[in-house]
Amino acid sequence: MSASHNVVIELGTVLRSNRVSRGLTMSALAEQANVSPRLVSAFEKGRRPNVSFEVAVRLLQCVGVSLRPTPASLILDEDAARAERAARRRATWVGGTTTLRQDGPPAPPDGAAARLIAVATASRLAFGLRDAYRAKLEEQQEQPED
Fold this sequence. Notes:
- Helix content is about 70%, strand content about 5%.
- By secondary structure, it is mainly alpha-helical.
- The protein has a two-stranded antiparallel sheet.
- Helix 2 crosses helix 3 and helix 2 (about 25-35) crosses helix 4 (about 55-60).
């Protein structure tokens, strides 16, 4: 799945939650934004990755969401970090890196299945940490400033 498709999925989720919180139906939102209800439905579900930027912004504005651009340098830093993490995971898959065990010194997983389980466990933990971090950021953003 491409990075742009991930963005569409996230924007669709944001659109849906804000539409529902405002009590708007898909049809009402579609009428406000001058698009079809089918497009709204597909965009909310992430099934419309090729929606134009103009339409996406118009839909989000109708539900009170504004976009804030991120400097390209931050995106590149994130991409570099992601590439580095992927390289480390690949090294683990082929047994070139060790994993930590609670009952002893670091040791490589025994066999392909054990390596795959280790990677899956690490991925689950990483996604859990990411979700907790995002929830904390959202919580901080919702708190009023003094």
